[in-house]
Amino acid sequence: MLTTLWKDEEGLTTVEYALLLALLVVAAIGVWSAFGSKVQSSVSSSSSAFDTASGTS
User: How open is the CA angle 41-46-50, to the nearest 5 degrees?
Assistant: First the structure.
């Protein structure tokens, strides 16, 4: 009984995709925390430049 369950590979693909998804989520969180403030300041300065160029405050 245990040997049949041990050799059964039917659900293996699902587990592999779940692990890949978890790895992508961890990588995305790392990128977000590393570059989040830089992107925010860049967008903020671009917004200010557009406001200045269009004459609105």
Answer: 150
